[in-house]
Amino acid sequence: MDNARGPTAGSPTLDEVARVAGVSRATASRAVNGGTKVSEHAQRAVDEAVRRLGYVPNRAARALVTRRTGSVAVVVPEPDDRVFSDPFFAGTLRAATRVLGEREVQLVLLLARPGAEEERMLRYLSAGHVDGALVVSHHRADRLAELLPDLGIPCVFGGRPWSGSDRVPYVDVDNVAGGRMATELLVERGCTRIGTIAGPEDMTAAIDRLAGFCQALEAAGLPTDRRAHGDFTEEGGRRAAEDLLDRHPDLDGLVVASDLMARGALAVAAARGLRVPDDLAVVGYDDLGVAETTDPPLTTVRQPINEMADRATRLLLDRIDGRDGGGPYRVVIPTTLVRRATA
Hints:
Layout: H1 14-21, H2 25-32, H3 40-53, H4 59-66, E1 71-76, H5 80-83, H6 87-102, E2 106-111, H7 116-126, E3 133-136, H8 144-151, E4 155-158, E5 170-173, H9 175-189, E6 194-198, H10 204-219, E7 227-229, H11 234-247, E8 253-256, H12 259-271, E9 281-286, E10 299-302, H13 305-320, E11 330-333, E12 336-338
Parallel strand pairs: 1-2, 1-3, 3-4, 4-5, 5-11, 6-7, 6-8, 8-9, 9-10
Antiparallel strand pairs: 10-12
Helix pairs in contact: 1-2, 1-3, 2-3, 6-13, 9-10, 11-12
Pfam families: LacI, Peripla_BP_3
Protein name: LacI family DNA-binding transcriptional regulator
InterPro entries: HTH_LacI (IPR000843), LacI/GalR-like_sensor (IPR046335), Lambda_DNA-bd_dom_sf (IPR010982), Peripla_BP_I (IPR028082)
């Protein structure tokens, strides 16, 4: 069903590809369009003919054969100002684009918060505009892990979903271990009045990091109630630090659930005359470029965003191609501690 002519008059045709490759037109069409009933020898011959002739397939006709759009959606249930200012999203999109580019698949970015925006996004996905969806930074209220499988569209989550994890695969970092690792460093340093600025209570990454914080303090016999919540932004970290230090001015250690929030907390500490790390030791979370630029440079937990996005995107492509068996796979990647000047 591939058109016989290329994109412009005089361009190589599929018939010419078949002639040069020494195969039938039907075999050439299947080989060009990714069909499965093509021998290895014939596929190599067609690939070589395509290269020699400079043949460009008609993608519209190819889509009719393969029922593929050649595009994948990255769904981010966040406001656009956060998406374009947080290095987490930049790293995720960069890694996903690189993997998709290897397969000549286009990335479509969908920003959708719960409500009318989410309904519009779900209508778009259900209309078959993309072959699959990669969901990142999801919240409890978005219910995407429950809704997307019902649309029949292949999907993978970057991060553990709140619910529906028995129906969708996900790739996550070990946030519980990361939160525990950050807190244990402060305990080993000799801090005894340790607080935390946790992330949003409706995100599993934040809840898991907080769980690790509590585990480490409980193991050390220290209280776990010195806490405030931010929204993973610098301003959110600033507000949470003001609140936490107002309530607990004697803090000597602080675990912050993102480097952006930690930068806001460091500004508050400086404004209050607290010396870091002498008066207040601080550990962040992410290591996506922000930690190296703070004053002083931030000790932090590195979460491998590039690896997470890479593996999630490849898993999605496998699901689209039917190569993963359709199971709800779970991949959890370990975190590491990066020591700098704040702890």
